Amino acid sequence: MPRDIEPEYTDLPAAVIRGMTGAERMRIVFELTARMRRKIWNRIEEEHPDWPIWQKKVEFMRWIFDPEPLPRGLEESMRGQDDPPWF
Predict the structure, then answer these.
(1) Residue-range definition of the domain harbouring residue 57
(2) Rg of the chain on CA atoms, in Å
(3) Is residue 67, in this structure, part of any structural domain at all?
């Protein structure tokens, strides 16, 4: 497994993963995805503490969509929305 994922999952043998139920594998996927979202958000907050929340959300979406551009109108729709992120 790649070494850029969470430590408790990097040493799981393929046979163990194959032996898991679909639900167990999906739980791992959702957990890793949630952790990655939090890491990206924390990095943006550290690098840009003075930005309003809506601007941080736009930057977060740039990370998610990279290398593709943001969907048309996304940034405009997020302007002024300073609700905390949903994750």
Answers:
(1) 7-78
(2) 16
(3) yes
Please indicate, yes or no, if residue 18 is contained in any of the structural domains: yes
Would you give per-residue pLDDT tens digits along the chain (87 residues)? 344 556 666 667 888 888 999 999 999 889 889 999 999 999 999 999 999 999 999 999 999 999 899 999 999 998 988 888 877
Identify the H or E element spanning 75.
Answer: helix 74-78
CB 38 within 8 A of CB 87: yes
Q: Give the separation between CA 57 and CA 24, rounded to whole angstroms.
A: 30
Residue 84 lies in a domain: no
Written as six digits, the tokens of 74 are 């996304």
In a domain, 53, yes or no: yes
- Torsion, Cα 69 27 32 85, to 10 degrees, reads 60
Total domains in the chain come to: 1
